[in-house]
Amino acid sequence: METKDLSKVTSIAVKNESGLIFPLGSSKGESIAPWVTEGREVYRRGLILALDLAVKRAYPHWKLWVEHSISLGYRCRIEGMKLGTESQVCARLDIELKRIVKEALPIQYRKISSEEALGQVGEHSLLPRWHMGKKFYRANVLGDSWAFAMGPTVPDTSWLSVWELRPATGSFLLRFPGSKAWPEIVPWKGNPSLAKELDLEEKHISRMKVHTVDMMNRRIREDGGREVVMMSHFYQNRRIVQIVSRLDDEFPEKRIVMIAGPSCSGKTTFTRMLSTYLRAQGFSTRMISVDNYFRNRSETPKHKDGSFDFECIGALNTELFGLHIKKLIAGETIKLPEFNFHTGVREDDVTPMSLGKNEILLIEGIHGLNDSLTPGVDVADKFKIYISALTTLNIDRLTRMSTSDGRLLRRIVRDSTRRGYSATDTILGWSSVRRGERKNIFPFQEQADMMFNSALPYELPVLKPYLVPLLQEVEKGSEAYGDANRLLRLFDVVEHINEGVVPRLSILREFIDGLLLDWSE
Question: Rounded distance, CA 410 to CA 142, Å?
Answer without folding.
Answer: 33
